[in-house]
Amino acid sequence: MMSSAAFSAEDANAIVIGQAIDLSSPNAAIGRDYVAGIKTYFDALNSTGGIGGKKVRYVVRDDQATPSVAAKAVTELIERDQVDFLLGGVGDNVTQAVLNAPAFKRSNLVLFAPLVDAIELSNNRILFWRPGYLQEVQHILSHFAPLGIKNVGIVYQDSPTTQEAFSSLSTELRGRGLNLTGTVRLGSNEKLNAQEASRLASTQPGFVIVIADTIGTALFLKEFRKFASQTYVAGTSLINLETLRELAGARAVEWTVFSQVVPNPNTGKTPIQLEHLTMMKKYRDEPPSSLTLEGFVVAKALTKTIQRSKRSTRMALQDLMAQDTNIELGGLSVNVSGKSNHLSNYVDIALFKKNGLIF
């Protein structure tokens, strides 16, 4: 499933799309779902002739969530596979490693649609599909504003990028007149993490925002719920919600809220949701998720970008970045503007309740 099947000689003129992404670390469920959605769209596209008569050859390499491996994998994709387009992976560190790779710097490629949660990368060689981290946080805060809650706690993983996100979030809280009751910095010492969770609970925050990966969030929830069983805990869209429930337990994920950057993947209310559901059933043997839908939409957005380009295929993303336009994807549109390197502004909220996930 992780790379395209061998193409015959008549397909040698294919459009090659490469991606280095985490498929094997403890947090790899995000990468696997993202790839499944992307591959589903390209499988469906190729079954109808591809793009302008050219099949899409989708080549995926596992970066193991390791910056050095990501840089090496991207170098191989550029130099050996001669990719026409490069999709991004999961996480700030590997994304920065790709941007710094000499092979990428020498190329004319634009890194498209990485799953970056904590930082804003200012670089004219990167184009995000999803909204920025701060936009997701602002939506979460707006969700709680009608409740009149003023006391907020923050939990963040101990890394340079999450510390930067913590700083941005603290500034946003002050600007909204909210009170930061306490913070937890998650490290590798489980006993200390448990003590920090207890201390945060004692400050009685109205809700807690977590800046961490799925495993870190799960470990925090298991400890925090021993002391605060009905305090809202909020996180952003790069938490794999089903994995979180498996690791933390059903009781621990009650009273949790997460931003989402795509509509509910399990309903067919819009054409893109229905298309995704139909094609996942046809081409995959796994259930749909927010990440499979995001991958599906990213692949469709790239396809439409290539179809619209008036220059050579490889320059399609550069052409897109130079325009001010909208691309309709079937009930979900992306807005292209030279003022932002984020195509989508869509943010929603998902809430865990006793009977499961509610969008």
Structure description:
- InterPro entries: Leu-bd, Peripla_BP_I.
- It holds the Pfam family Peripla_BP_6.
- Residues 15-351 form the Leucine-binding protein domain.
- The chain has 359 residues and is an alpha/beta fold.
- It has two domains: 9-131 and 267-336, Response regulator (Rossmann fold), CATH 3.40.50; 133-260, Rossmann fold, CATH 3.40.50.2300.
- 40% of the residues lie in helices and 19% in strands.
- The protein has twelve helices and 14 strands.
- The protein has helices at residues 29-47, 67-79, 92-100, 102-106, 133-144, 160-175, 190-202, 214-224, 241-248, 271-283, 290-308, 316-321, and strands spanning 15-21, 56-62, 85-87, 111-112, 126-127, 151-157, 179-186, 207-211, 232-235, 256-260, 325-328, 333-336, 348-353, 356-358.
- The strands form three sheets. It has a seven-stranded mixed sheet with strand order 7-6-8-9-10-13-14, with helices on both faces. Strands 2-1-3-4-5 form a five-stranded parallel sheet, sandwiched between helices.
- A hairpin with a 4-residue loop joins strand 11 (325-328) and strand 12 (333-336).
- Helix 7 packs across helix 8 (214-224) and helix 10 crosses helix 11.
- The radius of gyration is 20 Å and the shape is globular.
- The two termini are 29 Å apart.
- The model is unreliable at 1-10 (pLDDT under 50).
